[in-house]
Specification:
about 200 residues, mainly alpha, about 0% strand, elongated, disordered C terminus, membrane, transmembrane helix, transmembrane
Length: about 200
């Protein structure tokens, strides 16, 4: 059976939504179900958890052994390199936004992270010096608000992308939180229900 555009336009909105849901369920495939991807996912999880376990005693060790004062070489090159990385992140994000590319979300998250790091190191490394008040003001007025703006904008873009995909898949109601949506699919594999939604309780 074939439908023309006119046939689809004559459908009720609920009928079009049901058709889109049925097509989405047929087309949705979860790449993580691929055996090769499952192996990589398990390896990534193991590596991430292992890094967390290793970092806890390492942080305790550093807190107990690092000196309160330390003279570092290449101070100028370190901060210049960091600012160059921040400039590259800002410029790349701006270009991605101008081009309306999804990679802008990555750029925003990277930029916000670098801004928070910049504020942290500026404040902590100037502690007790004449530059400390200026570092605090710069962090509170400039770096941290800008970082929050970039993070908020990235979150909004992700939410908008999910919202549009949700609608175009024929799903109804309010989409779930980002923390509950599966990677790559809005339909739970083999369950035929929206990702992140618990099944309706049976009467």
């Amino acid at each position: 059976m074939e439908w023309s555009r006119d046939d689809l336009r004559r459908m009720e909105p609920s009928e079009r939504a049901a058709l889109m849901r049925a097509l989405a369920e047929l087309a949705e495939e979860d790449p993580l179900d691929d055996p090769g991807h499952r192996k990589g996912r398990r390896l990534f999880i193991a590596l991430t958890i292992g890094s967390c376990v290793w970092l806890v005693p390492w942080i305790v060790y550093l807190a107990l052994t690092l000196p309160g004062n330390y003279t570092a070489d290449q101070w100028s090159a370190t901060w210049t390199g960091f600012d160059i990385a921040l400039l590259a992140a800002l410029a790349g994000t701006a270009l991605a936004i101008l081009g309306k590319r999804q990679v802008a979300i990555v750029g925003m998250l990277v930029t916000s992270t670098l801004l928070v790091c910049d504020a942290w190191f500026d404040v902590m490394l100037s502690w007790g010096s004449d530059e400390f008040p200026l570092s605090v003001v710069t962090a509170l007025v400039g770096e941290l608000p800008l970082a929050a703006l970039f993070f908020y904008a990235a979150r909004q873009l992700i939410r908008l992308t999910v919202h549009l995909a949700w609608i175009r898949s024929g799903l109804t109601g309010v989409e779930p939180r980002l923390t509950r949506i599966r990677l790559f699919t809005l339909i739970e594999p083999r369950q035929g229900r929206p990702s992140g939604r618990t099944p309706d309780p049976r009467p």
